[in-house]
Amino acid sequence: MEQQNKDEQYMRKALAEAQLALREGEIPIGAVVVCKDRIIARAHNLTETLTDVTAHAEMQAITMAANELGGKYLTECTLYVTVEPCVMCAGAIGWAQIPRVVFGCADEKRGYQKYAAHALHPKAQAIGGVLEEECRELMQTFFREKR
Fold first, then answer.
1. Active site residue 108
2. What is the Cα–Cα distance from 76 to 87, expressed in whole angstroms?
């Protein structure tokens, strides 16, 4: 139960990042990286702001966390992200050797589970559905308003 509470607490931080993305006109996906019960990176999508298709929340958070720790491997970290990572991000998560990934809602169209189920590190644990409704609602609201 304690881990579930922590997961929800950190997912709320990722949701706050997603809200920032929404206010900036970005697809509302947020991410945080936690190491030893401390947030070491917070990020949200910046693809529109940077005109860079690779500027996903996860990619930004991985880079920040690696800079914070002074190394490319994030072997003692957990990545929290509001939406299931895409194939590109799952590959980066795998290369960074992140052992635990927690996401809010699944991405039925572009999620890694559909196209690259083995992209994460072989020993990594992925947990989906944490604050799923809040994460899904944020995405649905964004796309409803775009159309």
1. no
2. 22
pTM: 0.96
CB 44 within 8 A of CB 57: yes
- Convert the pLDDT of each residue in 4-54 to its tens digit: 999 999 999 999 999 999 999 999 999 999 999 999 999 999 999 999 999
pLDDT given at position 125:
97
Task: Single out the residue of 128, 43, 35 nearest to residue 75, CA to CA.
Answer: 35
For β-strands 30-35 and 77-83, DSSP reports them as antiparallel
Cα radius of gyration rounded to whole Å, the chain:
14
List 17, 26, 58, 84, catalytic entry: 58
Write down the residue that tokens 């709320």 correspond to: 12
